[in-house]
Amino acid sequence: MTSPVVQDGPRPGPDSLLALRFPSDPQLSPDGRRVAYVLSRVEEEEPRKPDADFARPRYRSHLWLAGAEGGARQLTHGEAGRGDSSPRWSPDGQTLAFVRTAGEVGGALMLLPLAGGEARRVTHFLQGVQNVQWSPDGRFIAFFSGGDEQDRRDERGEARVITRPRYRFNGRDWLPEAPARLWRYELATGELSEWYAPEIEPGAYAWLPDSDGVLFVSSTDERAAYEWRNEVYRLDLEGRVTQLTAWDAALQTVIPHPDGERFAVVGRPRGKGNTENAHLYLIGPGNEVTRLGGGHDHPVGGAVGGDCHVGALPEKPVWLDGDTLLFTSTVRGSVGLFTATVGGGVRAHDHDPQGVISAFTASSAGVALIRESATRFPEVELNGAAVTSLNADLPFAVRAPQRVTFTNELGEGEGWVLLPGDLAERQQVPALLNIHGGPHTDYGYGFTHEFQLLAARGYGVCYSNPRGSIGYGQAWVDAIHGRWGTVDQDDLLAFFDRCLETVPALDPARTAVMGGSYGGFMTNWITAHTGRFQAAITDRSICNLISFGGTSDIGLRFWVDELGLNFARRADAARLWDLSPLQYVENVTTPTLIVHSVLDHRCPVEQAEQWYAALTLNGVPTRFVRFPGEDHELSRSGRPDRRLKRLEEYLGWLERWL
């Protein structure tokens, strides 16, 4: 499902980002006839007192409601600086619970009667409220919060004593000494009580159908947690916890079956690491395990990249009845909705091979979702009909990519080229090879403002899914285990050569390579092994695999999963050094822009610092742009003014060297 492509119109600048409105968190009403969702826009932090010399654009979010009869209306109108998020329907459809955030104070749980009246505040904690869920009988609301605990050690200049293997995390910075507790609010009495204080931070949780408790995902100890080994537990209303599984491997979420006896999980089996696609499993009362959809060689969940996702994008599988589970899956460059039955079959429920469903909630009564494509901005839909018209409000012309394929010993790979719309006025345009992160993510039919901007400013954007990307079968993912920088580089360069051969508008004499995260690693690796590109942009990159192991929030396990190597073992460290771009940095001659965020704990900023220092010592033209207060998600959901600066730096560097 795509919209017509606009070929004419204004060329976007980086500030076109500020005109966009971002939908998120579509929540289907219990009767399936309405959808509540979040709409975020950018405005001045203090619109009544703007500073002409110091613009402060910030995200501001509100709740919206749309019905089957059409028409959408704004539900909340918080004051400047406030953000409303996480709408959650009461089982009777009469009340919305949501979270309201003001300034530096943590988000508060609010209750909004939909028949009319003001929202009522439930919590007054200093810490925020997360993962709000109603019990199926409507008696309780559960949520996680740190309560009134505050960590002011940095503010006071106190020493921080670290005794746990996991102590920082991207997007959160320092982890609290004690995990957030699970709280329970009883609506009839107004009683708010602490329900469960875990020793190890839980992941996903879900109410049991009879409302007698919840199932949650967690780890048995800290070592299991950093090795991504989880179990499913039951917590009853009296606070008793029972371990239900002996899974000992990664689990993402748990979905109780309507019978209350069984439950489904999304995860990987024991002995399988990060390169294994996530799949659906049904676990019975006797702990018997059945894989659902064993013939579906694609992962559960959406992994197609895009940079217009601000806010929550739910995609938890849903039981439509006792036999059928609805879930998202990444298939090549698309994400669709599929059903898996207890009997084992998988069928497409809503799958456009040239589209992406980036979020959904559902029941037997209907489906609410967010759909996008390479030429269609994300829109909220209710039971197949759009309830937003954000694509029509885009302040720039949208260009459609053309598909380009390449082959290797596993079969056909694919990618795309996005070209400027005014090619008649140009002879040829510079060609950019853009590499996605992960590595187990995907490029495809997601809407990407950055690509549209680069094309509109006169560049041909080439992007693909080399081996290691997901959506092309398990063998395609496994192909780079233990050998980053080998067959993945072969695919990237083969695809780029194919683009240059088949798209006459691309100028082979003016080329750049660029990417973020794993894409930044590959940018560093490629420029250290070939001088064919005239410019490079490496964003939130990796250059030293050994130091990454000890500084990244996932470093304790990541190389074991990806490469079969442990940075803390001498023999493995030698191999990790062989796989590090820094070892080959003296070969780099490509002018390089380095972009990194100070609070990036996924690919720590020390990686950029090492790469910058080495390039500088070797006399390579280099520019290093550091962003304060941002983490690994700067390009996708960072503060608007900082996202703007990043795009300006990209364009400035490309203009200078191409």
3D structure, described in words:
This protein is an alpha+beta fold and 658 residues long. 17% of the residues lie in helices and 35% in strands. The protein is built from twelve helices and 38 strands. An eight-stranded mixed β-sheet has the order 31-32-34-33-35-36-37-38, sandwiched between helices. It has a four-stranded antiparallel β-sheet with strand order 1-2-3-4, with no helix packed on it. Strands 5-6-7-8 form a four-stranded antiparallel β-sheet, with no helix packed on it. Strand 6 and strand 7 form a beta hairpin. Helix 7 (545-551) crosses helix 8 (555-563).
Helix content: 10-25%
**Class from helix and strand fractions:** alpha+beta
Instruction: Summarize the main sheet.
Output: 8 strands, mixed
How much of the sequence lies in strands comes to 25-35%
Spans where pLDDT lies below 50 across 5 or more residues? 1-7
Number of strands: 38
Shape: globular
Sheet with most strands: strand arrangement: 31-32-34-33-35-36-37-38
Key terms for this structure?
38 strands, disordered N terminus, four-stranded antiparallel sheet, globular, alpha+beta, eight-stranded mixed sheet, 658 residues
Short description:
Helices cover 17% and strands 35% of the residues. It has 12 helices and 38 strands.
What is the element layout, followed by pairings?
Elements: E1 22-28, E2 34-44, E3 57-67, E4 72-74, E5 82-89, E6 95-102, E7 105-113, E8 120-121, E9 129-134, E10 140-145, H1 153-156, E11 168-169, E12 173-174, E13 181-186, E14 191-196, E15 205-207, E16 213-218, H2 222-226, E17 231-236, E18 241-243, E19 251-256, E20 263-267, E21 279-283, E22 289-292, E23 318-319, E24 324-331, E25 334-341, E26 346-350, E27 356-363, E28 366-373, E29 376-382, E30 385-386, E31 402-408, E32 411-418, E33 429-435, H3 449-456, E34 460-464, H4 474-478, H5 487-502, E35 506-516, H6 518-529, E36 535-539, H7 545-551, H8 555-563, H9 570-578, E37 592-597, H10 605-617, E38 622-627, H11 634-637, H12 640-657
Parallel strand pairs: 33-34, 33-35, 35-36, 36-37, 37-38
Antiparallel strand pairs: 1-2, 2-3, 3-4, 5-6, 6-7, 7-8, 9-10, 10-13, 11-12, 13-14, 15-16, 16-17, 17-18, 19-20, 20-21, 21-22, 23-24, 24-25, 25-26, 27-28, 28-29, 29-30, 31-32, 32-34
Helix pairs in contact: 7-8
